Amino acid sequence: MDGKGKITVRCKDLCKTFYAKNRKQDEENEVIRNLNLEVRENEFLVLFGPGQCGKTTILNLMAGLVEPTSGEIEVNGKKVDGPSKDRGMVYQTTALFPWMSVMKNVSFGPRMQGVKKAEWKKRAQYYIDLVGLTGFEDSYPVKLSGGMQQRVGIARAYCNDPDVIFMDEPFGHLDAQTRYLMEEEIEKICSKEKRTVIFVTNNVEEAIYLADRIVVLTDMPTTVKKEYMIEIPRPRDYTSKQFLSLREEITQCVEISGTFEEAGHGDE
Ligand SMILES: Nc1ncnc2c1ncn2[C@@H]1O[C@H](COP(=O)(O)OP(=O)(O)OP(=O)(O)O)[C@@H](O)[C@H]1O
């Protein structure tokens, strides 16, 4: 990244408070406070922060699934005011349609838009091949491993041809081995199919392995704490000196946020 280029996503003074009514009183949960963020075209941006700081809420706001309390979000210069096919989502649990084959799951978006069969089949096959699932077109999700299901979820997001893809801890439920494999896979896919990706993870190694830039978030109410441009050449070596020293620095940056001190006094 050279810091130039078109901005795909812009969050300006973004705030989100959830209000819940309980029997005794109205409760407020201020999750995001004045978050400012710009994400450039084809950038792989990782949101990294303490547990429960509001990472998923930020993605949901950008995806138009949740409304901000104040502030604005723009995608390609257009105000976000609801979900759109220009914004794809890959979830932690795959959220596939269990009654649909891999082909039908991947092609779901184009089919819903009325794209002709020959075209959606071609497009879906391209992404099925890209994620390494050639031969599994007619399989159903239940027959696939967790890693394979995530591949379907990724192919489905790409097949809709979005401008930006949000990935919410997509490998969080996978075993360590599969997770490493998927990190390599997603890197290959992203270098072949350039897209703006905003990726949430709690795993510092995953963040450094994948990111062009890591945005470290504060505790709740969350905002940007610090940003790191990751300029280590790809594919990255988890054991290199540069990787390890960055891991140390970013881990400390998150720990200093006070999560752990507060956790110690949680029951007082
Ligand atoms: N729809 C909602 N209604 C009320 N509160 C919500 C809602 N969605 C999220 N929250 C609250 O927002 C806070 C942040 O949750 P969120 O899931 O965004 O954090 P996170 O950083 O993604 O968590 P994790 O580290 O577990 O992935 C939590 O206190 C949660 O209870």
Automatic annotation (TrEMBL):
Keywords: ATP-binding, Nucleotide-binding, Transport. The keyword Transport applies. CDD domains: ABC_NrtD_SsuB_transporters. Residues 9-244 form the ABC transporter domain. It holds the Pfam family ABC_tran. GO terms for molecular function: ATP binding. SMART domains: AAA. PANTHER family: ALIPHATIC SULFONATES IMPORT ATP-BINDING PROTEIN SSUB, TAURINE IMPORT ATP-BINDING PROTEIN-RELATED. This is ABC transporter ATP-binding protein. It comes from Faecalicatena faecalis. The lineage of its organism: Bacteria, Bacillati, Bacillota, Clostridia, Lachnospirales.
